Amino acid sequence: MDKPMLNACIFGLVLTLALPILASADQFEEFRFPREKSTTEDGYPTPLSGKPLTKTPVISKVEGASLKEYPEHYIPGKETLPENEMRITVLGSGGPAPLRRAQAASGYLVELGNGDNFIFDIGPGTSGNLYSMGVHPALLDKVFINHLHLDHIGGIFPLFDAMGWARNTPLQVWGPSGTTPELGTAAFTENIRKAAEWHVQSKRNLLPTGGTTITCNEIDVSKFSPENPSQLVYDKNGVKIHAFPVVHCIEGSLGYRLEWNGLVFVYTADSEPSTFEAEQGKGADVFIHEVMPSAEEFALHAKMPFEHAENVMGEHTSPEELGIVFGIAKPRLGVGSHYTLGDALVDNFFKNVGITYDGPVLLAHDLSVINVSPEQIVIRQAKTSMLATVPDAPALDGVDMNPGEPSESKTPAWLTETRIIK
Ligand SMILES: [Zn+2]
Ligand SMILES: [Zn+2]
Predict the structure, then answer these.
(1) CA 321 to centroid of chain Cα atoms
(2) 41 CA distance to ligand 1 centroid (A)?
(3) How do 263-269 and 254-260 pair as beta strands?
(4) How many Å lie between the centroid of ligand 2 and the Cα of residue 156?
């Protein structure tokens, strides 16, 4: 091979190797925050643009009333929640696999002006968002589970793992019973605790042990009936939470209605649309309900056979159906969650929900923050640190900070004898 030919070959080889690198570099532009492209074709903010996916970021109760101003982004630690406000944060806006970096699976944090905090669902990927919100893990001990699909509970280990280093009281979980005991939340939490046995034993003489248990408050789903549509499952410090059943796959899916200080938060998560759940959502300030793209769109996104996508969608709610549910419940703000985000899919969502509903709607995105007061609802995106640290620990009375007894299990002496002496 002569020299010019050799050079051409080398150039060709370099180009072939470089092209995929350039192409993948382009793809990584998508992960910038905020993205440069900031609106969809129909004029909605695009996912990752730093703006919530809605055209109604401010909803006032009385038109023309003078409203409180909020900073453009919610930054943890820089704002105190006023005594009469509720702050709802989307910890995860996604649904089932494939889990995406920009969309954790289902999870919501509800903070109240009285200092109480509640977690609704703890899907995979939500814990990083949760811990970036500036709430000390000792105050994140109450979890309400909608149903036991893994995209709603699969992030419980990182939350449980705050035991000892941050949360020194039991993790409290509320969730549905099932048709048989093994289908219920008590069996789930018992198995989670059992699966963590090595972890707990290995640390119990090093750290306080008060956080190493999970308390389950299982809600008996057999008690629901047309005469008994909901159950009061939490009543403390002025906060009431009712559970009610929803239609999703098999028996054991719940919706929750939290009432505090005249404000109402309703979360139904996964469900086929029903007039029953819409009735339970009446009078909500914020009603969060699942929504999924069409079977065609989901099959394309998840690269699954259309028939399988159709089976999945049968257990869920389309944007048009979501509009019908909101039309009955008439919340101040309706939120669609559990959707696959993408520029075209955002437009399709709003087009289709708009066929049946004309009230204010937000399409949930991770770290959308909703401030709710009697006068107004304000939606922003949070800017949280990717290197967030734990805030100062709260003073809690009666918490035993003493480590416990060591495990009987020991590393073999022949191995520990080889340890390098510090
Ligand atoms: Zn789900
Ligand atoms: Zn589900």
Answers:
(1) 22
(2) 28
(3) antiparallel
(4) 16
**For the CA of 290, the nearest ligand:** 1
Domain range enclosing 223: 34-63+76-381
Distance 98 CA to ligand 1 centre (A): 12
Contact 176, 145 (CB under 8 A): yes
- CA 270–ligand 2 middle distance (angstroms): 5
Consecutive H or E run containing 258:
strand 254-260
Sorting pLDDT into bands at 50, 70 and 90, what band is 96? confident
Domain for residue 233, yes or no?
A: yes
Question: Nearest ligand, CA of residue 250?
Answer: 2
Number of folded domains in the chain? 1
The 10s digit of each residue's pLDDT in 46-86 is 999 899 999 999 999 877 777 899 999 999 999 999 999 99
Looking at all shown ligands, the one closest to residue 337's CA atom is 1
191 CA to middle of ligand 2, Å? 20
Q: In angstroms, what is the C-alpha Rg of the chain?
A: 24
Is 146:255 a contact under the CB 8 Å cutoff?
A: yes
**Per the domain annotation, does 7 fall within a domain?**
no
Tokens for 415? 């191995």
Instruction: Indicate whether 15 pLDDT > 60.
Output: no
**What dihedral do alpha carbons 218, 223, 227, 233 form, nearest 10°?**
-20
CATH code assigned at 196: 3.60.15.10
CA of 273 to the centre of ligand 2 (A): 13
**Residue 269, both tokens:** 């998560």
Beta strand spans in 367-419 (E)? 368-372, 376-381
Kindly provide the residue ranges of all beta strands, DSSP E only, lying in 93-178, ordered along the sequence: 107-112, 117-122, 142-144, 171-176
Q: Can you tell me the distance from the alpha carbon of 53 to that of 352, in angstroms, rounded to the nearest whole number?
A: 15
Calculate how far, in angstroms, residue 316's C-alpha sits from the geometric centre of ligand 1.
Answer: 9
In a domain, 28, yes or no: no
Residues by chain with Cβ below 5 Å of ion ligand 2: 149, 270
Q: Kindly state whether residue 370 falls inside one of the protein's structural domains.
A: yes
